[in-house]
Specification:
The complex is a heterodimer of chains A (121) and B (297). By secondary structure, chain A is of the alpha+beta class. Chain A has one helix spanning 2-20, and strands spanning 21-22, 32-39, 42-44, 47-51, 56-62, 67-71, 76-80, 86-90, 96-101, 114-120. In chain A, the strands form three sheets. In chain A, strands 1-8-5-2-3 form a five-stranded mixed β-sheet. In chain A, a hairpin with a 2-residue loop joins β2 and β3. Chain A is globular, with a radius of gyration of 16 Å. Chain B has 297 residues and is α/β, with parallel strands linked by helices. Chain B contains seven helices and twelve strands. In chain B, the strands form two sheets. Chain B has a six-stranded mixed β-sheet, covered by helices on one side. In chain B, β11 and β12 (286-293) form a beta hairpin. Classes of the chains: A alpha+beta (121), B alpha/beta (297). At the A-B interface, β9 of A face loops of B.
């Protein structure tokens, strides 16, 4: 009984964490997917518009070199590796305009490689 | 000791006031191993040799030589000089990177004081994992002792992901294990070890692990660069002081939407650029910082 309760609690914790941010398996329900291409030295799109409380999956690809996506205000980041699709699931918990940036030094234009996430109610 | 007091008198006479920053136990007890005299060192940072942008610095090729001349004419000989990274401006071309590093090295050879320590910044080292920088300046992280203070240079830039890395952290742990809890410790690094403003990449991904290793030591002060401006912040009892650049200033953290260089002001050339002198009062673990302009107004 105790063991079962612990398992349920553990499952609950994992579910709660996944409701905010996650980079693992995607939820079974259909969620909005935004594909972002990273290339020297720009993200396309540069501006991402999403809704507070609505899950979104960001998919990153690059054909150049290893790059990174970091949105510090949401405490999420992922590497973007040539030949792979990197996925980042997030449920924004606040409205406003927030910076995202490449956090892997990728070349002589790296420092200008950033964009904005606009979260609306 | 006498020399240090004389230097302060000299600064007063020159009208250059310093700011005193105390770390740990001000006026504390004697620490293990030394009751040696106070001393003085100079920190220069973010010289970005090879940068080309007349709007923010029309004298990009002249600022570093002017800074070298200014250090040579301080009037007092520092015990040593340290460059805390971004010696050169980044380039994707490895040959050009080496050319810039060679030119930088040749310019700073004109420093009268030959006890010069170097550190890499991400502009020097993130492309190529620091290989070119090491060819010119040797190990990118190291420690040394000077007159009772243990200095540690931490490399948080040769990994393009802005990590110190597990190997260097293990070295840091073993290096700190040789130091008493009340040892005087000064850390040099390029990026801030704490999350100053990650939105502008002003952070070190695993910097918190370095701070955690430093925390048991009572007298730790960090001098760093990267953000092209003077900034002072505490993490617990550890003081962190960033230095001005010698190429262009950057805005205060988060003060505007984008991290863009502050434009050159023809009415106030070299404004926001400079270097610093640090008076180390060893027994008190205090560091008196004096900021110097590139050129006197």
């Amino acid at each position: 009984m105790k063991l079962e309760r612990r398992r349920l609690l553990a499952a609950g914790i994992v579910a709660a964490a996944g409701a905010v941010f996650g980079t693992g398996g995607l939820a079974q329900t259909k969620e909005r997917v935004i594909r972002v291409t990273a290339r020297k030295f720009v993200f396309l799109p540069r501006e991402i518009r999403i809704k507070k409380g609505v899950p979104v999956v960001l998919e990153f690809v690059t054909a150049d070199v290893v790059m990174g996506f970091n949105a510090p205000d949401f405490n999420v980041r992922t590497d973007i590796v040539p030949g792979k699709v990197s996925r980042l699931r997030m449920v924004p918990d606040k409205t406003g305009t927030f910076v995202f940036l490449c956090d892997v030094f990728c070349g002589d234009g790296h420092e200008g490689m950033s964009g904005q996430i606009h979260v609306v109610a | 000791m006498r020399e240090s007091i004389d230097r302060r008198e000299f600064l007063k006479l020159a009208g250059l006031g310093g700011a005193v920053f105390a770390s740990g136990l001000a006026g504390g007890a004697k620490f293990a191993g030394a009751a040696e005299g106070d001393f003085y060192f100079v920190q220069l940072s973010d010289t970005h040799w090879g940068f080309n942008g007349p709007v923010v610095n029309p004298d990009a090729g002249g600022t570093l030589p002017k800074a070298v001349a200014a250090v040579n004419s301080l009037g007092y000989e520092p015990d040593f000089i340290v460059f805390t990274g971004d010696l050169t401006h980044t380039t994707d071309d490895p040959k050009e990177r080496r050319r810039r590093l060679a030119e930088f090295r040749d310019i700073v050879k004109n420093l009268k004081n030959k006890n010069v320590r170097f550190m890499p910044g991400e502009h020097d080292a993130a492309l190529g994992n620091g290989q070119a920088w090491k060819e010119f300046f040797g190990a990118s992280y190291y420690s040394f002792d000077h007159k009772g203070v243990h200095f540690i240079a931490i490399d948080n830039v040769s990994d393009p992901t802005a990590r110190i890395g597990s190997e260097q952290l293990a070295w840091l742990k073993s290096d700190l294990a040789t130091q008493a809890a009340d040892a005087r410790i000064v850390v040099f690094t390029h990026r801030p070890l704490f999350d100053l403003y990650p939105q502008w990449d002003w952070a070190t991904r695993d910097g918190a692990q370095a701070i955690e290793l430093l925390m048991p030591h009572k007298n730790v002060t960090v001098f760093y660069g990267h953000i092209h401006q003077e900034h002072h912040q505490m993490t617990g009892h550890i003081a962190h002081h960033s230095a001005k650049s010698l190429i262009f200033p950057l805005p205060a953290p988060g003060s505007q939407p984008k991290r863009e260089p502050i434009r050159w002001d023809p009415a106030q050339p070299y404004k926001g650029l400079g270097f610093r002198g640090v008076d180390a009062e060893v027994q008190k673990a205090e560091y008196e910082i004096t900021e110097y302009p590139v050129k006197k107004a």
